[in-house]
């Protein structure tokens, strides 16, 4: 029987978080407008910090979705075996 390999979810989460950190950090650095709709201004480091954390969150969520897609629906025979063990 061929053994099915499962994706390492932590790798997907970390990769997504790192990509989100870099992308949103660059967006914050390259954005010349640091004033929000209420007129409050943020320093560049504050904007980079907030955007990077937000990017890490979104990247980790995207990584989790990618890991779920990569895992696929699973092997039906494995589900049957797990169900029998629970009975």
- How many domains in all? 1
Compute the separation of the termini in Å: 25 Å
Count of helical regions = 3
Helix content: over 70%
- SS-derived structural category: mainly alpha
What is this structure's SSE topology?
Blueprint lengths: L8 H22 L13 H28 L4 H11 L1
Helix pairs in contact: 1-2
Features:
87 residues; mainly alpha
Short characterization:
With 87 residues, this protein is mainly alpha-helical. It contains three helices and no strands. It has one domain (9-86).
Task: Give an overview of the whole structure.
With 87 residues, the protein is an all-alpha fold. It has one domain. 70% of the residues lie in helices and 0% in strands. The chain is built from three helices and no strands. α1 (9-30) packs antiparallel against α2. The longest helix has 28 residues, at 44-71. It is rod-shaped, with a radius of gyration of 20 Å.
């Amino acid at each position: 029987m061929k053994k099915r390999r499962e994706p390492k979810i932590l790798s997907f989460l970390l990769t997504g978080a790192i990509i989100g950190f870099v992308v949103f950090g660059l967006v914050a650095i390259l954005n010349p407008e640091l004033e929000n709709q209420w007129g409050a201004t943020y320093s560049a480091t504050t904007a980079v910090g907030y955007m990077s954390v937000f990017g890490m969150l979104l990247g980790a969520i995207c990584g989790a979705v990618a890991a779920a897609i990569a895992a696929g629906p699973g092997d039906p025979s494995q589900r049957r075996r797990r169900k029998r063990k629970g009975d």
